[in-house]
Amino acid sequence: MSQTGSPAPSQPLRITVLTDSDTRPPGLDLVEAHAEVVTAHDEASLRAALPGSQILLVTDFRTEALEAAWDAADALQWIHAASAGVDQLMFDALVNSDIPVTNAQGIFDRNIAEYVLGVILAFAKDTKHNVVYQQDRRWVHRDTETIEKKQVLVVGAGSIGRRIGALCRAVDMDVVGVARREKPGDEVFSAIHAQSQLDSLLPHADYVVIAAPLTESTEGLFDSARFAAMAPHARLINIGRGPIVVTDDLVAALDAGQIAGAALDVFETEPLPADHPLWGYDNVLISAHMAGDFVGWRVALMEQFVANLGHWQRGEALFNTVSKRFGYAPSSQ
After folding, report:
1. Is the pLDDT of residue 4 over 50?
2. What distance in Å separates the CA atoms of residue 165 and residue 161, rounded to the nearest whole number?
3. Is residue 145 domain-shared with residue 276, that is, in the same domain?
């Protein structure tokens, strides 16, 4: 296995696409215009497809099949994940190899930011109860909140976090970032603090937005102690990864009134079981891991991959290269 370089002219380019079913992914014709393409959807079909493939395009979050079939990869030079998160790809054999991994950074940023601003406004304007009262044909007047000058603490100051911050700043909110290490403030974040300072920041935030990747340092980051540190009027918004939040501790915090509500797009277990207590809270907004998905996103992912494929074929540096150590692509790319 080799990290760089395109195949010799006499060697045809072969790309394996790992999908979530045997259904043809939208936009695959864009890839087929550049290479021989073989699809796989489970361990057996992936094991048959990998030999001779120089590139693996992963469009399926459930990547256990790749680890199981890894010994069949005899020519891989590059793996691309058609997602922002790559935590499920980071098994030891891949991490320890010299094969670069890229991701879909940038594709979902704007849509996720719109989702976050939307749920902030939904909380502030009590939109959920407007819908309930309309369905009940009840006229219930009440005063609602303003979001001007309210503080948004964005945990994860990468490309998604920056886009969230930019939209919130545009509506005159105070935006504070949390990153792996402290950085100077800029036109988006009034300050960027190290994750080690999180406990001292939580009491001052009106909205806490999780936009971090799932890593060893973020798994279980929001537990009972963190919820106890939050202001009682604050709301939690998670568009990062489900396991960053300890769900049982969140339920306990909601029951105890330690926080005022939550908007959750990702969960430790997906789909969220129908009998899970989170469904029953009137101060919780739930969506089905869809904050980033917009009409046409699947084709946009293929267009991005083909653009990076052009770099690879010309021997140029790939963009959105993921740090296997930290589990994300630096936003400076």
Report:
1. no
2. 6
3. yes
Where in the sequence is the domain holding 100, given as residue range(s)? Answer: 14-107+295-313
Q: Give pLDDT, residue 6.
A: 56
For the beta carbon of residue 331, count every other beta carbon within 10 angstroms: 17
Q: Is 176 in the same domain as 69?
A: no
The C-alpha atoms of residue 90 and residue 319 are separated, in whole angstroms, by 19
- Same domain flag for 145 and 275: yes
155 phi, psi to nearest 5 deg: -90, 100
3-state helix, strand, coil in the chain (%, to 5): 35, 15, 50
Q: With respect to residue 52, please indicate whether it lies within any of the assigned structural domains.
A: yes
What percent of the chain has pLDDT above 90?
88
pLDDT of residue 8: 46
Residue 195 identity (one-letter amino acid): Q
Residues 266/243, Cβ–Cβ less than 8 Å? no
Two tokens at 329?
């692509």
230 with 95, same domain: the answer is: no
pLDDT digits (tens, 9 = 90+) for 60-101: 766 789 999 999 999 999 999 999 889 888 999 999 999 999
Domain count, the chain: 2
Mean pLDDT for all residues in the chain: 94
| Cα 43 to Cα 40: distance, rounded to the nearest angstrom | 8
Residue 1's pLDDT band, with cuts at 50, 70 and 90, is very low
Domain membership of residue 333 (yes or no) is no
Q: Kindly report the CATH number assigned to the domain that includes residue 101.
A: 3.40.50.720
User: Over the stretch 38-68, which tens digit does the pLDDT of each residue have?
Assistant: 999 999 999 999 999 999 999 976 678 999 9
Q: What angle do CA 276, 281, 284 make, to 5 degrees?
A: 100
User: Contact, 124 vs 142, CB < 8 A?
Assistant: no
91 and 119 fall within a common domain = no
Q: What is the DSSP letter of 303?
A: H
Q: Are residues 224 and 75 in the same domain?
A: no
Question: What residues act catalytically?
Answer: 241, 270, 289
Residues 103 and 117 in one domain: no
Q: Write out the E strands in 73-158.
A: 78-81, 101-102, 151-155
Check whether residue 90 and residue 235 sit in a common domain: no
